[in-house]
Amino acid sequence: MRQPEDQHFCPLFNRNIYWGGPGGCYEVQEVREDSMDMELMPQSFDIKQADKHCEDCQWYNVSKQK
Predict the structure, then answer these.
(1) What pTM was computed for the model?
(2) Cα–Cα distance for residue pair 12/32, rounded to 1 Å
(3) 7 — phi, psi (to 5°)?
(4) Per-residue pLDDT of the chain in tens (66 residues, 90 and over written 9)
(5) Cα(58)–Cα(66) distance, rounded to whole angstroms?
(6) CA atoms lying within 13 Å on the CB side of residue 57
(7) Biggest distance spanned by C-alpha atoms of the chain
(8) Exposure of 46 by Cβ count < 10 A (0-12 exposed, 13-18 middle, 19+ buried)?
(9) Backbone angles phi, psi at 10, to 5 degrees
(10) Beta strand pairing status for 15-18 and 7-10?
């Protein structure tokens, strides 16, 4: 299971990000699911690009190991 401090290369931001924490993978998914306002993210992003990259990457899915 992923931990908040786990890091992974994010193709959306083109850099390593944390799974949890500010601006992490978890928060990107919250924005994608309309559970969090984009304004709360430390770095803005294109939601359509996030949909594409996140579905290809799947790192947000804690039950899968890729």
Answers:
(1) 0.87
(2) 13
(3) -115, 155
(4) 788 999 999 999 999 999 998 999 999 999 999 999 999 999 999 999 999 999 999 998 877 654
(5) 8
(6) 22
(7) 30
(8) exposed
(9) -100, 115
(10) antiparallel
Query: At which residue do the structure tokens 């992974």 appear?
Result: 8
Residue 25 in tokens: 């993978």
List the structure tokens of 40. 């709360």
* Residue 49 φ then ψ, to 5°: -65, -40
Cα–Cα distance, 56 to 62 (Å, whole number): 15
Q: Helix or strand or coil: residue 17?
A: strand
